[in-house]
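Late entry, written up from scratch paper. The run itself happened at the end of the previous shift, but nothing got recorded in the book at the time, so transcribing now.
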Amino acid sequence: MIRTIERYGSEILRKRAQQVNHVNGEIRAILQDMKETMHTFSGVGLAGNQVGVLLRLITFVHPDTKEDLALINPEIVWQSEEKEVGEEGCLSVPEVYAKIERSRKVRVRGLSEKGEEVVFDADGFLARILQHEIDHLNGILFVDHLSPSRRLLLGNKLKKIARGNGE
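Output as recorded:
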């Protein structure tokens, strides 16, 4: 089922998602919906709160294998001091793109769709996707990483998106 994407200005995007206590059919169904939604809107990642589900769930496309993956309760347990700047966009902030500095490498821990613990290292674009989506689960948007002056330049675009939410 294709779900509605929450847009900039929606309160749920600013809330911290809750831990998932039991991986069951309902959670797997939400993850499947998220994958379908992500592809329908040509995204490379999606977090639970972006589809109105305040649970610590993310889906993403592995940039090398093109495999659809999901993580439950993901957390970054290590990140490199080495940074890199790359362009980011977001399905919740349509038509806004910006260069964002992030750690080049991360180690992420979470649960698979089967409920099994997984820990893996990611670098480059995959590391960027994971940091972006885990930020969402903490109520942080990529535009929050911009300097105040850069955010000011995007102000009208962001207000227009928020107004589309009834604000």
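The two ends are 27 Å apart (CA to CA).
(Scratch paper discarded after transcription.)
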